[in-house]
Design brief:
By secondary structure, the chain is mainly alpha-helical. The chain has six helices and no strands.
């Protein structure tokens, strides 16, 4: 039964890109767990809590992405071995400084955002309105989290671009 208001032959590329995003999110999720467990130093309390918030959010997104793939009438990838092969995000050593952890996460955010835009591109071509609705919210949320992590990594004397404010 075709309950979607799109031609199902146009949906396969969307499902493929969503499966890629699903793989990326799984590795990202596990990296956040790794960092949550292994962060040390003066920023431990703040980062331990932030990483937990982030991996909880990632876990929710993983479920929503998989359910969207199912809604599109395809099977989501569900084996960790496949996630490791497919993902554009790599595993990390737990032996890192807090600053290196944040830098790694920000790099992953770029990768996730790039994949989200690929999903949006394919969904637009397929005239799929449901997928962009889901992914657009993810983009906004991830951009905000990236801004906050980037701000955390700056020294207190670094400022934003003043030209925008003054011109």
């Amino acid at each position: 039964m075709n309950y979607l208001n799109v031609r199902t032959d146009n949906i396969l590329p969307v499902a493929k890109e969503l499966n890629q995003l699903l793989a990326d999110y799984h590795i990202y999720y596990q990296k956040l767990r790794n960092f949550h467990w292994n962060v040390t130093g003066k920023n431990f309390f703040d980062l331990h809590e932030i990483f937990e918030t982030m991996y909880t959010d990632a876990r929710t997104k993983i479920d929503e992405i998989a359910e969207r793939i199912l809604t599109l009438q395809y099977h989501p990838t569900s084996r960790y071995s496949m996630y490791l092969k497919m993902s554009s995000i790599s595993e990390e050593s737990p032996l890192q400084t807090d600053t290196d952890m944040i830098e790694s996460i920000l790099k992953d955010h770029k990768t996730l955002l790039k994949q989200m835009y690929r999903v949006l591109e394919k969904a637009k071509k397929a005239e799929d309105e449901g997928t962009p609705d889901l992914i657009s919210g993810y983009i906004s949320s991830l951009e905000k989290t990236s801004w906050m992590l980037n701000a955390w990594s700056k020294s207190t004397v670094e400022q934003l671009n003043e030209e925008i404010i003054l011109s």
